[in-house]
Write a structure and sequence with these properties.
Layout (H helix, E strand, L loop, with lengths): L27 E5 L15 H6 L1 H7 L3 E4 L3 E2 L11 E5 L6 H13 L3 E6 L9 H8 L12 E2 L22 E3 L5 E3 L14 H16 L4 E4 L42 H12 L7 E4 L5 H4 L10 E2 L2 H5 L4 H17 L5 E3 L8 H4 L8 H6 L9 H17 L3 E5 L20 H5 L43 H5 L5 H15 L5 E3 L8 E6 L3 E6 L5 E2 L4 E5 L4 E2 L5 E3 L3 E6 L15
Parallel strand pairs: 1-2, 1-13, 2-5, 5-9, 9-10, 10-11, 12-13
Antiparallel strand pairs: 3-4, 6-8, 7-8, 14-15, 15-16, 16-21, 17-20, 18-21, 19-20
Helix pairs in contact: 5-6, 12-15
Length: 579
């Protein structure tokens, strides 16, 4: 299936003199969910030294950068996204020295480092919030957060009907009778970003990590922070979205999400990033709708925003093409590069999601332990492989979630007793939560955690994961890992930033076909019937090609092909030999 042999790493030159264009415009960024990547000390939880020890895998894969989920001091009420100290490392994950060592080793391997910043809220163990609880209502200490008196007799009712993303009311009452806002878990009180101390502290946090060598930030809930807190607080009514994190059609007027004044905060951060040489980068986690999300990547704001429209698109040609076209147009309108992502630590892994029948409720599927409807394992594999080649052929930046290069599916049947996601409890078990995409990575065929660590992992790994491990796939030319390694090596030569042109003659119903200006042609068969193989030199296929009765090669259903539409320049051809 992989025409050339799996290539070795081609680490980029990260020196300032090597910059031809901003690296983030065409980068492949690999997300490390730190708790589930590698455990160095045998406590069952991933950590920074463990991640450092496995960075060579990412470099060999061919990625340009890593994105680390939070490793800061935290009580772990939400897996580290409840931060008590933004300038220190939680002992579960290591030390500040371990963080410095990771950055240094990543840079030695040619990998840039992006770290998570969580500005919407802190942990309830943060010193500021402890001071707030110890102080009287109306005190300066409480002004950094969002405290309000309740409604009803004795203030016994929440100040508004606002709902938490994780389920239930977004207000928590304190012992003295006031309420504080938490748009996520009660252990994650929201900051008041109109307070100058909040803005100043986060500028200091950004400087702290930039001065330690990080190359940029992923901004958690970048469309949050700014809120309409004018009295009386606006109720949102029974139709508000309880499980989403932005109101549909908000247009900047929603009291909680995607408000116009959030962009003032982001502009100040862009100005800060630009004071460094070379300039550092930032990507927004913004769940604003597409026309609004593009505002986050205007020339004086952030460099990128995650393309959740692509992540949420069904496995269907017309819908995917619409998303690709609108994403490219939106990015080009502000001079940004588009981003593409299929999976992350908050959603069902795409290997499983793309194989679900149309109109399946993903939460209902998880609630059935991933059994109703049952997934066809062959469809899971074919679509995951084809989706990878589609993702990596598109112009712009690609984000990979750890384990997708192994073809890992969602673990839908985790038993109740091991679930840790606060979504499970806050939703009163109406949602299973996100643990199924966070199961620790299998590195070896054997051992108590398949090479993740020396002890059992914090979430159990499925029985069939030994053959999905890095060790099992590394020397198999037909493995998902070999497919990714080869695709990323080819992408350096034929992909990256730029444009695409749709090839209408090669795009019958149920298919996508486009050509990059480098000569790369990507054809994806999303239909049920085989398609004729277009002319050109085959570079890579996601699955085996078939032949029709006349002997002509055809592309089976759920299969993607990369071709070269014209002979490559011999002097510029990529080196695909094994080094």
């Amino acid at each position: 299936m992989t025409t050339p042999p799996a290539p070795t790493a081609n680490a980029p030159d990260t020196s300032p003199t090597a910059e031809v264009e901003p690296w983030w415009r065409h980068a492949v960024i690999y997300q490390i969910y730190i708790r589930s990547f590698a455990d160095s000390n045998g406590d069952g939880v991933g950590d920074l030294p463990g991640a450092t020890s496995r960075l060579a895998h990412i470099a060999a894969l061919g990625a340009d950068a890593i994105w680390l989920t939070p490793f800061y001091r935290s009580p772990m009420a939400d897996g580290g996204y409840d931060i008590a100290d933004h300038r220190d490392v939680d002992p579960v994950f290591g030390t500040l020295t371990d963080a410095d060592d990771l950055v240094a080793e990543a840079h030695r391997l040619g990998l840039r480092v992006i770290v998570d910043i969580v500005p919407n809220h802190t942990s309830d163990r943060h010193p500021w919030f402890r001071e707030a609880l110890a102080s009287a209502p109306g005190s300066p200490e409480r002004a950094r957060y969002i405290f309000r008196d309740g409604k009803g007799p004795g203030g016994s009712l929440p100040p508004s009907d606002w709902q938490s993303v994780f389920g239930g009311s977004a207000w928590q009452r304190t012992p003295d009778g006031q309420w504080y806002l938490h748009l996520f878990a009660p252990e994650q009180p929201d900051l008041d970003w109109s307070h100058p101390e909040v803005r100043a502290d986060f500028s200091s946090i950004l400087h702290f990590w930039l001065d330690r060598g990080v190359d940029g930030f992923r901004i958690d809930v970048a469309h949050g922070m700014a809120k309409d807190l004018a009295e009386p607080l606006r109720d949102l009514g029974p139709d508000q979205v309880h499980h989403g994190i932005v109101g549909a059609g908000a247009n900047g007027s929603h009291p909680l999400w995607d408000r116009d004044d959030v962009h003032d905060i982001l502009r100040s951060w862009r100005a800060l990033l630009d004071t460094y040489e070379p300039p550092r980068a930032a990507v927004a986690e913004s769940w604003a709708e597409g026309p609004r999300r593009v505002l986050y990547t205007r020339p004086d704001e952030l460099h990128q925003a995650f393309n959740f429209d692509f992540l949420q698109a069904p496995w269907e040609a017309a819908g995917l093409r619409r998303v690709i076209d609108t994403s490219l147009a939106a990015a080009h309108a502000v001079g940004a590069a588009p981003t593409w992502v299929l999976s992350n630590h908050d959603v069902i892994r795409h290997a499983s999601r793309l194989a679900l029948p149309p109109d399946t409720d993903p939460n209902a599927w998880l609630q059935s332990d991933g059994k109703q409807p049952p997934l066809d394992s062959a469809t899971v594999q074919r679509r995951a492989r084809a989706a990878a080649l589609l993702l990596l052929a598109l112009p712009g930046a690609a984000y990979l979630y750890q384990g997708e290069e192994l073809g890992l599916p969602e673990v839908g049947d985790l038993p109740e007793g091991v679930l840790q996601d606060p979504v499970r409890v806050r939703s009163r078990r109406s949602r299973k939560g996100r643990d199924g995409c966070r199961v620790p990575i299998p590195w070896q065929r054997s051992g108590p955690s398949l090479g993740f660590g020396s002890a059992s992992p914090w979430l159990p790994q499925p029985a069939d994961w030994p053959e999905r491990s890095v060790a099992a796939q590394s020397d198999n030319p037909d493995s998902v890992l070999s497919l990714y390694r080869t695709a990323l090596r080819l992408r350096r030569h034929y992909g990256g930033d730029g444009d695409l042109a749709w090839l209408e003659s090669d795009s019958p119903a149920g298919a996508l076909a486009f050509r990059r200006d480098t000569g790369l042609v990507c054809t994806v068969n999303l239909g049920s019937r085989a398609l004729p193989l277009p002319t050109g030199d085959v570079l890579l296929t996601s699955g085996h090609l078939d032949k029709d009765p006349s002997g002509r090669r055809v592309i089976p259903a759920d299969t993607a092909v990369w071709l070269l539409s014209q002979p490559a320049d011999p002097t510029g051809s990529p080196d695909l030999s094994i080094g």
